[in-house]
């Protein structure tokens, strides 16, 4: 199929009459919506009674959409099993960590590991795939909806049995599990796998290994369910399959997307949370390398439910979001939702069209997105996003470790986003790369908040260093084993410490200790659980002042092959801390020879793309204040063909430009 950019919306035809559906399709055409996502909550419409399955309503809608030039992403409806499945069957329901069994209603109320759920999910999916797979309007599939968004690890009896099986597969013998988890502590020792509890209600904290492993077990099971659904669809359709995920959910995205065809995410970041929006683009681009991602859901203006609502976007912002996404590797920019809900619990949520069929406050912005989409489409489809020189490792497995051990309420998403934000502000192009990603082509690697550094990861990072790259390790990296215990050969493991040429003398929380860290000409308070180093071959770059361990190092640097390994043992905080980190990033970006960076002003971004003959900068003002960037050599405006002279390029509020440089 010819490559194009999609502009879409979530559509719920099962909630409306045929007249409204016909009107909606006309209105979609007017608004420039060229793809609709349907079906993800419609199980009871498709199978009102057990085994009474009829997909024809959806076949008809998809055909109507297609006849009007609108393509479809079809979903499996598994987040909302109907009443015939749930009523009188508490054993099929999700059980939370306090042991509360969910009732019918809302969504994600069933246990996705329940054998009967899997059976019914497979049956309905097969019917859908058979009926809808052959339709010409279907360009993609979405499995379920936002796995584990509202729920986390299920504690039901089914999960308990599967957990025991998972442990057996992982450890082989219960003796190995006892050893790995240190179960002599608090008389936790187990004689058989079937004695190992789920980390449910308890008077005090559970064993760290138990909690983290239960999360990894849950990650694996939900990904297996996704695999199972995808395999069924593939029997009937060649269209690519995705899932609409997020960094906020209780899933391992890297594992989840392994057996899917493209990555997609939902985001409802507010206007004033630009990094919270962009981080998704810089991450999801890298779950399926070389493949465009989709923004499957975002609001036209504001998200809302009965209990709360977000701030509406300022006029102009939606278009900036869309252009930035397309430039950073999105093939589609889609809204939740097309027509405002008449019923349910999300009646107030922003949409394209109101429940009474009129434009909403976001409608004008949708038209602006469509104009921009048409304008940039030829340039975007003829180019590819350019790989960054700087990689920041992202790990959902680490998210599990941090959930078990949040220190003082540390939150993985918040930590990673604020670490990442500096790179955006500093105009450094960056990839958030999954833990298992290939590190070829990167010059500078940051590994923050990775509690367990696997030997596989270490070897890939070491190879990057040996060929001349710089690897910055920390903060909060390396201090735990695979089983969420503490290393006993050295604080951060002997292998890592020897590689980095350090010995970790102490690990302790720095907050409230008056410790200052001094490096790159800045002195800043330090925070978080920290590592204090004695160089053993490395040189000290940052030293501690005051506090408990003055004179010791918290940043070190060690030669390795043609490159260097930098240990960052603590988290500088406050304004000075931010400055110190920026100086560190700046220093090592220069040392590593990073060139893919611009002096773009904060609030404006540059997304680099390329063709065989040209480099492109898609420059977008996102904060509504306008901005500037220095153009190094004469260039062309790829949209107007006008010459752009070297020097300062100014952008107005929410303006975007595509600057084209010819490559000699
Ligand atoms: C998403 C979900 C949608 C809708 C939306 C509202 O998390 O997938 O169905 O609830 O949020 O913002």
Automatic annotation (TrEMBL):
Gene3D superfamilies assigned: 3.40.50.880, Glycosidases (3.20.20.80)
The keyword rRNA processing appears for this protein: no
Pfam families cross-referenced by the UniProt entry: Glyco_hydro_42, Glyco_hydro_42C, Glyco_hydro_42M
Positions of the Beta-galactosidase trimerisation domain: 388-594
EC numbers, comma separated: 3.2.1.23
Catalyzed chemical reaction(s): Hydrolysis of terminal non-reducing beta-D-galactose residues in beta-D-galactosides
InterPro entries per UniProt: Beta_galactosidase_C, Beta_galactosidase_Trimer, Class_I_gatase-like, GH, Glyco_hydro_42, Glyco_hydro_42_N
Keyword presence, Thylakoid: no
All residue ranges annotated as the Glycoside hydrolase family 42 N-terminal domain in the record: 11-375
Domain of life: Bacteria
Domain Beta-galactosidase C-terminal: 603-660
UniProt keyword list: Glycosidase, Hydrolase, Metal-binding, Zinc
Family of this protein: Belongs to the glycosyl hydrolase 42 family.
PANTHER family: BETA-GALACTOSIDASE GANA, BETA-GALACTOSIDASE YESZ
This protein's name: Beta-galactosidase
Species for this entry: Paenibacillus vulneris
